[in-house]
Amino acid sequence: MANQCAICGADINLIQTQKLSDGNCICRKNCRKKGFKVFDYVHSNLPSVKAHLAQVERGTKLWEHYFVPRE
Q1: How far apart are CA 49 and CA 71, in angstroms?
Q2: Torsion sign, CA atoms 14, 20, 24, 30
Q3: Per-residue confidence (pLDDT) for residue 1, from 0 to 100
Q4: Which of 1, 3, 7, 20 has a 20 to 30 A CA-CA distance from 45?
């Protein structure tokens, strides 16, 4: 019984899945790793997880732009 990740669409098995409160599943290997470890995935729904991942990506880009030395 393989599920599909609601974010990236990858096929995931029971061990690799993280079930959200609205019943959707995300993969632990790729999508969950992109977010913060302290974010509560169990009690979150898909739109809040997508918003969290977008915020983390935006913050990472800003960090790299302002604080990573350029050559």
Answers
A1: 35
A2: negative
A3: 59
A4: 1
Q: Is the pLDDT of residue 67 over 70?
A: yes
* Nearest in space to 33 (alpha carbons), one of 51, 16, 14, 58: 16
Task: Give the global pTM.
Answer: 0.85
DSSP 8: T
Look up tokens 């290997």; give the residue.
Answer: 29
Map 15-62 to HEC letters. CCEEECCCCCEEEHHHHHHHCCCCCCCCCCCHHHHHHHHHHHHHHHHH
- Helix/strand/coil for 12: strand
